[in-house]
Amino acid sequence: MSLQPVAVADDESTTLGIEIYARLRRDLIAGHLKPGERLRFRQLSAIYGVGIAPLREALSRLVSDQLVRFEGHRGYTVAPLSLSDLHDLCALRTELSCNALRRAIARGDEDWEAEILAALHRLERTPVPHSVEDRKTVDEWELRHDRFHYSLIAACDSPWLLHFCGALSDHFQRYRRGVIVVTSSSQELLKRVRDQHRTIAEAAIARDAERATAVLAEHFQGSVEVVVRNYEEVSRSLSAGNGDDGN
Predict the structure, then answer these.
(1) Locate the HTH gntR-type domain: which residues (predicted)?
(2) CB burial class (10 A; 0-12, 13-18, 19+) of residue 2?
């Protein structure tokens, strides 16, 4: 009987660790915590309203996700961005996503088709953000954009493939958020992105795997090119400028 309170406390601690992990992960992907920024326990505890133990547990998991780095002399820091990482990320994301899309086209049913059309409709109806400060609009656009891309590959019948595609998409979102306003402010770029989304959806439903994967690869590469062209500005706006003093 005396052991029960301890078990409950452990359960509560574990639940809190999972919750703070999810919150930190969301903020890291969204860029609310800047690349290169030191993650100090005292500051995080005040911001997220939790103790050191669940924060340490969450940060350890985020190191495994490669969203956070741990160095003995600096502690935990937000994973940096780089052009070499961007190109490596895009190459792998393209390979796995096209593989998943081919499998989904071969296996997908009417429910899969309907979800693609529904996700595309919601994405096309979503207002595009015109300022990175408009976090609500950016978050909603990213949420619907992710849902559309997930809907394309949802029928691939491979949980591992879906997992890795999702992880790569999350990492790429860290770069894309830096140029989302560039895309939304250009009618040419915006039209190209929307046309590609619709073309991929239509080709997938028509079971045209060659066209669907070709346009998907082109779509991913186009996003990379936008980031590369604006990388200096992206780096300035996203990277942390804080020093190493304090804890």
Answers:
(1) 14-81
(2) exposed
Residue-wise pLDDT for 57-68, tens only, equals 999 999 999 999
- Which of 71-75, 101-105, 232-236, 240-244 has the largest mean confidence? 101-105
At residue 18, what are phi and psi to the nearest 5 degrees? -65, -40
d(CA 114, CA 103): 17
Q: Give the pLDDT mean for 115-122.
A: 98
Give me the mean pLDDT over the 225-233 stretch. Answer: 85
The pLDDT of residue 25 is: 96
Tokens (6 digits) for 8: 């409950």
